[in-house]
Write a structure and sequence with these properties.
The protein has about 200 residues and is of the alpha/beta class. It has a single domain, classed as Rossmann fold. It contains seven helices and nine strands, in the order αααβαβαββαβββαββ.
């Protein structure tokens, strides 16, 4: 994780948590691919909006965020533990039925992303399902708030996944959102099954 980006979330945790949107409609489809009560790792849980839905539907959730301040806010809102963990600290092997990473891996420096995807692949059980979303683009860089984004193309992303392990693509689509800094962005959404 880029240190400047992590510092942004640490310093602006309350404002970001108050801005956070309702859970993605994609979450329900993702949960439908998992066994009832299955185990889920959530990266970058932010304010805990997705985590709240996952818990309400009876799944066994390990919620994480790289910012201690954000983790504390989410834990309080959820009345459930949220672990402070960076993406590169994932060490589990075949532990999760699903990994949910909404708008967080887009902060991983491009040269490091394949390694993080390899960790996620290893952490998933056989046939485990992985959702992640990224901002579309060609060149990495920073937004007006100083946050780093890897800005990826669909082709580059699929090649990077392939380098990280065998995956089966379940779905790939795009949407347009308004970011925290009020700028529009095209998001790439991938749902993959561990091969």
């Amino acid at each position: 994780m880029d240190d400047e980006t992590l510092q942004f979330y640490r310093s602006n945790a309350r404002a970001y948590a108050d801005w956070a949107k309702a859970p993605s409609t994609r979450l329900i489809g993702f949960l439908g691919l998992l066994p009832p009560g299955g185990s889920i790792l959530e990266f970058g849980c932010g304010a805990g909006n997705h985590a709240a839905e996952i818990l309400a539907r009876g799944f066994d959730l390990r919620a994480t965020d790289g910012s201690p301040e954000m983790a504390a806010i989410a834990s309080s809102r959820l009345n459930n533990p949220v672990e402070v963990m960076r993406f590169d600290e994932l060490e589990e092997c075949e532990a999760f039925d699903g990994v949910w990473a909404s708008a967080c891996l887009l902060h991983v420096p491009k040269p490091e992303l394949a390694g993080i995807l390899t960790r996620i692949h290893r952490a998933l059980k056989a046939d485990g399902v992985f959702y992640a979303s990224f901002k579309s683009g060609e060149d990495d860089g920073r937004d007006s708030l100083g946050r780093y984004y890897n800005y990826v193309s669909a082709d580059w992303l699929h090649a990077t996944y392939a380098a990280a392990g065998p995956w089966q693509s379940l779905s790939s689509d795009t949407s347009v959102i308004k970011s925290f800094d009020e700028t529009p962005a095209t998001m790439l959404h991938l749902v993959m099954r561990k091969g």
